[in-house]
Records
---
Amino acid sequence: MGNISFGINMEYVRHADKTFEWGVAKAAALGYEYVEPMVHWGRELLSEAGYFHSVSMLDDPMRIKEACAKEGIKLSGLSAHTPLCKPEISVEYLKQAIRFAAECGAPVVNTDEGPKPDWTSEEEDHVLMRYTLGEAAKVAEKRGILIGIEPHQQYSKHPDGLDRIYNLVDSKAIGINFDTGNSFLCGHDPYEWLERVNNRMVHLHAKDISVEQSDSERGKVTGTPVGCACGEGVIDWARIIEICSRCPNDIVVSVECGTIDEAERSIAHLKGLMVTA
């Protein structure tokens, strides 16, 4: 069985108005072993000015590698969400993210099908996604990078839909990045769904959902950007960890929360569960 480690998605410093490097150092200080950076195309004002954590793929990938090495922290993957249904955006973006991941040392590139075009049918969308994933998988296979498909949008909001996307391309590079919060908000049982994909999982987004958000949004949305602190919402983390412990792959449980304080409380809760397990 695989090993379980804890990481943090860099969205936790979204509202801190700090650089990527600052966020990496803070994650290490909080006790996280891994970080999951977000990458983007081109240039973006806030990140260039040092007020946002996202890293441009026009930068040297060694920027990420060196920042992590300085703080003694590792990479669980890259957050590289792009609309797979829109190949004019996603094909080159995803291929570049895979090459960037290979050079900076991130083993997984996470994505989802994204918002669909407003003029295509469901069948056409799946042809478009097959093309995108097929092109990306060829690049990923040569570099030993995994593509984690996340439940997050219109087709992946239920287990059968996620499986259909996963099965579009037969490639050892394609796996599942399971999201506990998105699966719950979609209206499904996250534990049953996790069991279903456990042997194909390559990464996990640890997203807890507050009771308030659950009451107002469950069954009405396909996902949410970040959740509350792990242990303060509706997700049973002991159960999640137990299921992950039976995954054949090593899994980084990458926390997705919205603030530094939530990140601190999340790691304390998750590590406490490992001590008592």
---
Amino acid sequence: MVAFQDWAREQAGYMEGVLAELLPSRDTVPHRLHGAMRYATLGGGKRVRPMLALAAGELTHASRDRVKIVAAAVEAIHAYSLIHDDLPCMDDDVLRRGRPTCHIEFDEATALLAGDALQALAFQLVSAHTLCDSANAQVELIRLFAEACGSRGMAGGQAIDLANVDRQISLPELEHMHMLKTGALIRASVLMGALCGKPLSDAERGRLDHYAKCVGLAFQVVDDVLDCESNTEKLGKTAGKDLNANKPTYVSLMGLTQAKAFAAELLEDAVASVAPFGASATRLTELAQFIVRRDH
């Protein structure tokens, strides 16, 4: 089996090509909007969500041609969320992936529309292609995706986040916020990738779902740690932003040492959840380890 770093590099390059093909061309009217969409999506990022979808597809022996559409759709949603998160009315940031944020490179109106268009493109992709063996499974896939993006998912988590600036909240409240803001799309990436292949039993689906929830939460815990420990150059975004904005984080509530220990516990739980799948879950296990042990 190819080493994880080589596999991850290969998947990231593959997804760059898939996204470049599926995104509207800069030569297509409206040129500036399409340029902003491509700017925000291509040429950077870890591609964790697409890789989770691809790895889950491997678990259920899904066709790569199917899973690449799901992977592109979740990355389009992720790119849209980053554009909107960086806007002055949200987190008001000027740096993303080591370069100017979309509204700085273009303008606020174009950035807002680019995010809107990327969200629409994501749902166009998952509805225009045959991704599952049955119509019912594909409807479930689209429903799961919509829920992950909406008020009971990513958008809702962002709303809770904004509402809690300068407020003290409990650890369960913080966990709920991040299960929506960060965890919902990560969970959807895993489950949607798996839905493209052979059906899972209820028990298998439960194990995969638990893995996805643990990984989604661990991703945010590690983000909070890196926001304190890393630097802007390595992160490619403004370090210390949450602390300066007086936002509640796992580090502010638990302390740095305990937050790191919590991430390690989530990793152990995630790996144990998919262990019964055997070798077919190797990439999911490696991705969980990468998410928790990354330095940016």
---
Amino acid sequence: MRYAVGVEYDGTAFHGWQIQVGVNTVQEQLQNALSRVANHPISVQCAGRTDAGVHALAQVVHFDSAATRTARNWLLGTNVNLPDDVNINWIKPVADDFHARFSAISRSYKYVIYNGETRSSVWRNRAVWERRQLDLGRMQAAAKSLIGTHDFSSFRAIACQAKSPIRTLDKLELSRSGNMILLELSANAFLHHMVRNIAGVLIAIGCGDRPIDWARDVLEHKDRTLGGVTAPAQGLYLTAVGYPPEFGLQELEAEVGIPGII
């Protein structure tokens, strides 16, 4: 039986999603917990690997198991065996051709900026602190040039392994509530560091270091070395993954809000 699973984690203590020798990763913790419930080794595949310090409110994974367990048994048993900074929110049997990564048709992220003169102890691992005053209107104007289907070579990590830099960015919205600035992004898929590189460009524009047109110029250069600073990881959250309706996951795909923000 193949299962799809919704996973939530605080990425602060992890060296990212993917298993690496000698360090703490989300994948290793999840596989160990599922294997205890299944009573045999479990390997999981995720919708999108996250870097060290990045959070997920709605990561999706799949795994195969011949073990006879109810969804409730899987859910409760796995969570008991997970550390406090990881848990699964739902689990559901799916068709054998379902793949958490390759079946996905959309992904959504949120990026949180704490924009205040002094740092916040509460948000230190959950948002990026920017002490310079950010002009939301400038950032919103710059963001418009990035929406649509483009070659995002300037916004991908140099080590990105994606075969093509072409992506369709369907949503890039910015809002502000007090000291908190929220970026909300949705695309068919994202390149490595794409969201953090977009955030870095918009922050530079928001604080006045760069003109509004710089976002468009960076995009047109198609050169990462001209793309500015990669924003820190702790402000980034994976908040939704979308799949075709035939997999029956629609009711589980609603974008998740960030507690204390939206």
